[in-house]
Amino acid sequence: MYNYNNKPILVFYETTKACDLACKHCRASAIEARLPDEMTVDQSVNFVKSIRNFGKPYPILILTGGDMLKKEGLEEILRTAYEYKIPVSASPAATARLNDESFELLKKYNVLSISLSLDGLRETHNWLRGYDWVFDKTMEAINTARNHKMPVQINTVVLKKNIMELPDILKLLITNNIRVWEVFFLIKTGRSIDFEDLTPLEYEDVNHWLYYITSYNMTVRTVESPIFRRIADEKETYHGTSLYRELIRKTHELLGLPDGKPHVHMEKTRDGKGIIFVSHNGDVYPSGFLPVVLGNVKRESIVHIYQNNDILRRLRNPENLEGLCGSCGYSDVCGGSRARAYATFNDIFAEDPACINTYNFIK
């Protein structure tokens, strides 16, 4: 069994805040040029080398941003991870920089996979990402990745605006033989568009639908919605509201009935437990959506921070959770979104206001 107190599964590294897109919900509040406090190439390389001190199997290093393709010294960072046998995945932005040459660079250093964002059909995706060419560029990048035999994961943020396009996105994934879907739920951070967030009832319906569509041989992971694991663990018949029923109806219309049964491989991770985030300037957070600074890798080892920081130790123990999350029987399997608790109550241990149990209690 993986011991989350000793090391994470994933280390996210926000290589730069520089990005040529202008996404309305951007966690990083990305800008066109890099910031002056961005880690130097040498500092980045030293940080990557330090990951090896977690011991084998090493955590996977996720290079993100901004746009990681705009990171100065990217090839040196990739080369270091390759030489130190640290597994790497990449999360580039769908811009002109994502081309055959950049795919060849990623393949050269054995990058495992890339993740691309796709948040709806053309109009919706372009609206969210700030330009009218991004959808086409994203679909082009999917084709280019296929030509380079690079596995692709699709990331999607769920909004009121795109809920009914989720079955369309699912069809696009299946049509393009993409079987890993990471679904993000809004947190009030960066340029997050709060008015597009869902109600607890909508959270419940969408997460139940996500569980259902795993029966189409789709691996689904959620970000800042660990209630997905509670739903998968319950395995109860769900009828939901009209939203859930309409999502199911549209899915059947587009794809027919599934061949299999829902199946979820559940890692009991959450902010600071199994994942850790290193920002462009070296500051360490429990996750990219929970802006509580734990230390800085320019001054101390990522291993020491992850293993010894008191906030992280407390976050990883479900007995420290408060409110309904603390008294819930799924406090370990789920534990609620710590980032949403912090954004709502300024308390990382508070209950998750998006959970239907919280909604029913208040009601």
From TrEMBL:
Lineage: superkingdom: Archaea
Entry keyword Ion transport: no
One Gene Ontology MF term: 4 iron, 4 sulfur cluster binding
Family annotation (Pfam families): Radical_SAM, SPASM
Sequence ranges assigned to domain Radical SAM core in this UniProt record: 5-217
Alphabetized UniProt keyword annotations: 4Fe-4S, Iron, Iron-sulfur, Metal-binding, S-adenosyl-L-methionine
SMART domains given in the database record: Elp3
Protein biosynthesis is among the record's keywords: no
Signal peptide annotation: none
Cofactor(s) required, per the database record: [4Fe-4S] cluster
Protein name listed in UniProt: Radical SAM protein
Organism: Acidiplasma aeolicum
